[in-house]
Write a structure and sequence with these properties.
It comes from Amycolatopsis magusensis. This is UDP-glucose 6-dehydrogenase. The chain is of the alpha/beta class and 428 residues long. Helices cover 40% and strands 14% of the residues. The protein binds nicotinamide-adenine-dinucleotide (NAD).
Length: 428
């Protein structure tokens, strides 16, 4: 396909990656945001989010002239072949997706989009949103297309440029094929379908992953009760190609900016369609139960009572490789610990500044000073390489709770500490 004039609205994880990557494969891209300060930083090549390769791609796009940043979508949209909506769709009242940003942008640009220009939702939106946007637009000459995004934070650029698949759906199939063609350079398989199916793919995929994680967390709990080892169990499961190895790692519960809101949204979508999605509700409940079990494990490690316990936290981001704290399970655990009176010191290689209920430090060893327990909450590789002998010297107590099964227990034990993982025997 020849280069297209693309507008990307929203310059967060999804929008900035989309804009920079589409520019890198030859399209002429204008990125738009409401945050004027952010736009100014991006126009100067400064990228706030931690995503490998993204700042370089933005720099190259700016230098080539194929990428630019502006405030306000109207002028840009007036000269576009396609407009991508990459704005937030957070959890709204009662768990449903809040579509106000999607609707606001539609209203902002609805009368200036040229005839034939595709309006494309990359934001995760409930089934029926394409129809809703068409109604809001009140125009039959602007095709509305769903093109959900599957990138993962921490590997956003690589995921965008080497996707497992591209999903595009519209009730205007020619427009859907045109949008799929924007990715021709990527040589990825594409699924071109109707709007409702494309919208549902994203929720179906994310909720499947959340359910898989809840399942493995429940199996880890069974391992502890039955004297089995989750590492051996998941290895045995993962060799089965019908199951696969990914998303088989137990942890402190799933979180991040997508899985919690998308699982709640799909239960609401199902409810509105008259279907009680009990399986998905159970996965959500299991996630809360997992966090409660982690809290109980930490309380047990400090002698039963969290009040006044000094606890060092390693990791705050919702997963390694990102500085995103949105719906981080580490923060969820920390807030319950703090509510029970624990004194928290925390370190994360990608997170600084002030956070409620804890002191954030910039050295992992500082969390151990005077601590009764050290708890690993995010699977940063650098925690594996810590000097546990030195940590043990700094600590008051001897408990290490490893909610990611990240550490080599032997190294922790050899330092004179105890180690507890998830779904594994406690070692002291
Ligand atoms: P984000 O919060 O990182 O970024 C959203 C951006 O949109 C912000 O810069 C904000 O200022 C801007 N914005 C808000 N309202 C706007 C408006 N009216 N006009 C212009 N800009 C506006 O969000 P994100 O993580 O990139 O997620 C965006 C969408 O993509 C969501 O629907 C999310 O569910 C979906 N998604 C996210 C991921 C992910 O890993 N983060 C992956 C796949 C899909």
């Amino acid at each position: 396909m020849s280069p297209a004039r693309i507008v990307v609205v929203g310059t967060g994880y999804v929008g900035l990656t989309t804009g920079a990557c589409l520019a890198s494969i030859g399209h002429q891209v204008t990125c738009v945001d409401v945050d004027a300060a952010k736009v100014a930083r991006l126009a100067a090549g400064r990228v706030d989010i931690l995503e490998p390769g993204l700042a370089e791609l933005v720099g190259r796009g700016l230098t080539s002239g194929r990428l630019s940043f502006v405030v306000g979508a109207r002028t840009a949209a007036a000269g576009a072949d396609g407009v991508f909506l990459c704005v937030p769709t957070p959890m709204g009242a009662g768990g449903a997706a809040d579509l106000r940003a999607v609707e606001a942008v539609t209203a902002e640009i609805g009368d200036v989009i040229p005839p034939g220009c595709a309006l494309i939702t990359k934001s995760t939106v409930p089934v029926g949103t394409s129809r809703r946007i068409r109604e809001l637009l009140g125009r039959s000459d602007v095709p509305v297309v769903s093109n959900p995004e599957f990138l993962r934070e921490g590997t956003a650029v690589a995921d965008f440029l080497h996707p497992d698949r591209i999903v595009v759906g519209s009730d205007d199939l020619a427009a859907a094929h045109w949008v799929a063609g924007l990715y021709d350079e990527l040589a990825a398989p594409s699924v071109v379908t109707d709007a409702a199916s494309a919208e549902l793919v994203k929720y179906a995929a994310n909720c499947f992953l959340a359910t898989k994680l809840s399942y493995v967390n429940a199996i880890a709990e069974l391992c502890e009760r039955l004297g089995a080892d989750i590492e051996a169990v998941t290895e045995g499961m993962g060799h089965d190609r019908r199951i696969g190895r990914s998303f088989l790692k137990p942890g402190p519960g799933w979180g991040g900016s997508c899985l919690p809101k998308d699982t709640h949204a799909l239960t609401r979508i199902a409810e509105a369609a008259g279907f009680e999605f009990g399986l998905l509700r159970a996965a959500i409940d299991e996630n809360v139960a997992q966090r409660d079990r982690i809290i109980a494990k930490i309380a047990g490690a400090v002698g039963g009572s969290l009040a006044g316990a000094r606890i060092g936290l390693l990791g705050l981001a919702f997963k390694a490789g990102t500085n995103d704290l949105r719906d981080s399970p580490a923060l969820a655990v920390a807030s319950v610990l703090a509510a029970h009176g624990a004194e928290l010191t925390a370190y994360d290689p990608a997170v600084g500044g002030e956070l409620p209920g804890m002191v954030v430090v910039d050295d992992p060893y500082q969390v151990a000073k005077g601590a009764d327990a050290v708890v690993v909450l995010t699977e940063w590789d650098e925690f594996r390489r810590l000097d546990w002998v030195y940590l043990a010297e700094l600590m008051d107590g001897d408990a290490v709770v490893d909610t990611r099964n990240l550490l080599e227990p032997r190294r922790v034990l050899d330092a004179g500490l105890s180690w507890q993982g998830i779904g594994r025997a406690r070692e002291a």
